[in-house]
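Fresh eyes needed here. Kindly weigh in on this sequence plus structure tokens:
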Amino acid sequence: MQLFTEEWPPITFSREGKPTGLAVEVVQAIQKRLGQQQDIQVVPWARGYRMATSVPDVMLFTTTRTAEREQLFTLVGPVALGINNLYVRQADTLQLRALDDAKLHGLIGVYKDTVFQQFLERQGFDNLDISPDPQSAARKLLAGRVRFWFDSNLTAPAILKGLHVPTTAIRSVMAVEENNLYLAFSKGTPAATIESWRASLLALKQSGEFTRIYQRWLPGELPPMKVEVIGIMPH
């Protein structure tokens, strides 16, 4: 099985050429329990998503649960829970009464083929500025090239930190939707493989190891303790 992830700190990212982050540590702990050593490839999200939607026996993480993705993948998790927010620069005094109001107030920065782009397109937004990665989208907000940046509360602070920018440089103008993050297995992945990962994730949570990993990366946040398999049912 091929494993793909992206640069989306602190959930998944690379440090000195090696994958790390909350979900990377969870995946590595599952691999250890299963006696597996597949390399985790950190790639642009669009590339990983393309592989996971076209090649069997691929696992892409982390993937937000949506109705569309339940038709494309077998999802195991969740491994993290967050909230997707529309962010503006701190000095911006804009207030939104409803999400649709953001259609009238300038460009919204998202990155390619992500849940952020897909969600807004389903809502009829055509004022999207699409970047190849979340760091580029954040830079555009900070430079005033877009009015909004759409990302998760789990990752926005770490992305700003990586850009050497304080979190006080931006503020949330609207909490838009929950972001439940899963491990996504591509169509054609054997049922036995998915069951072994489900059982290992459950054991990881029951042992307390998952909670220790989660709170090391997201101090003060409550970890999701259930484990479910949704989406395509493997054969």
User: Anything to note?
Assistant: The mean pLDDT is 96. The longest helix spans residues 191-207. Helices lie at 22-34, 45-52, 67-70, 115-122, 134-142, 156-162, 191-207, 209-217.
